[in-house]
Amino acid sequence: MGHTIQDVAEAAGVSTSTVSRAFTRPDLVSAKTRDRILSIAAQMHFSLSRSAAALKSGKSLRIALLMSGKMNLWFISSVFEGLNEIFHEAGYDVSVFQIGSIDERKEFFQTLPVRRNADAVIVSSFSIDRDEVGQLNSIGVPVIGINADNSEELGFTAAINIDDIHGSEIAARHLIQLGHKEIVYVSTHREVSLHFSVQNRTDSFMNYCKDHGVRIRSIACEISENGQYNISDVASQVLAMDPLPTAIACQEDGIAIPLQFLLERSGIHIPHDVSIMGFDDASYSADLGLTTIRQNPVDMARKAARMALELIDSKEIDETFVVEKAELIVRSSTSRPRA
């Protein structure tokens, strides 16, 4: 019987991940350690290929990333960056499954358990239902959520979430304390039967405003077939309002930034005429002076990836359901309302 990667690791006095990197990512291993590993591997007639490593370890060396939306969205691309950073170093590939319809969702959950072609599933920004979580858990696949609704109640193995409720409440409180009483909230409108995590943001923001006697109106930002936000339509709806709102809060910076440009192009001065704020602290938010709620999806994804690797190896993790605090970042796009 041939030697395994575990045999090489034990003989070299290193971890199996280090052996894997010596073959696949030699730049991440010191020359001395790499030479020792390769020498021992040669003596054992061991060679590493992805298929061989998968067969010997009983793992597919693949992680399934389940998401809705396009990869060019700031949050999704940031999540992928953080996941790939950790998984690639550990010898895993990340396979992206974009769920854009009910049929695609059904196909994913029918084929993945049968093929067993992933060692863990990362669910980003929406919830899968209890039956689907149970289907994956029944074959020993850990399910880790990143900003996924009700992850603990639905039976996820682990999750890391931004505190959307607290984030939206401090956003609403910021505008109310400035004196705004005519506020509009802009969120996406999705036809797919996926519970997008930002629904919590919408509900908590609007409830906070209503509880404090503030008039709150909502606008649904439509998403085209190619995944683009229809910001022009949102701007038109805002400009047609009577009275004009004194403040606009957006579900995410990806809506707030282009909306700010369009309103200013239409003669609206930000923040003198209308204050505007987002949620994310995405790229360019600081450059444009956008007031927003900060979250760090790259770091959240790194933590989720480390959780997944521990769970794949049947190790216990210190905290399975982590909630990251939201932080208000005040910049120049919000001020007291016009007289």
Q: How many structurally independent domains?
A: 3
**Terminus-to-terminus distance:** 83 Å
Count of strand segments: 14
**Radius of gyration over all CA atoms, rounded:** 24 Å
Write up what this structure looks like.
With 339 residues, the chain is α/β, with parallel strands linked by helices. Helix content is 43%, strand content 19%. It folds into three domains: 45 residues, 434 Repressor (Amino-terminal Domain); 134 residues, Response regulator (Rossmann fold), CATH 3.40.50.2300; 132 residues, Rossmann fold (3-Layer(aba) Sandwich). The protein is built from 13 helices and 14 strands. A six-stranded parallel sheet has the order 2-1-3-5-6-13. Strand 1, helix 5 and strand 2 form a beta-alpha-beta unit. The radius of gyration is 24 Å and the shape is elongated. Keywords: DNA-binding, Transcription, Transcription regulation.
Write the layout of secondary structure elements.
Layout: H1 5-12, H2 16-24, H3 31-43, H4 50-57, E1 62-67, H5 74-89, E2 93-98, H6 102-115, E3 120-124, E4 126-127, H7 130-137, E5 143-146, H8 151-154, E6 158-162, H9 164-178, E7 182-189, E8 195-196, H10 199-211, E9 215-222, H11 231-239, E10 247-250, H12 253-265, E11 275-277, E12 292-294, H13 297-312, E13 321-324, E14 327-329
Parallel strand pairs: 1-2, 1-3, 3-5, 5-6, 6-13, 7-9, 7-10, 10-11
Antiparallel strand pairs: 4-8, 12-14
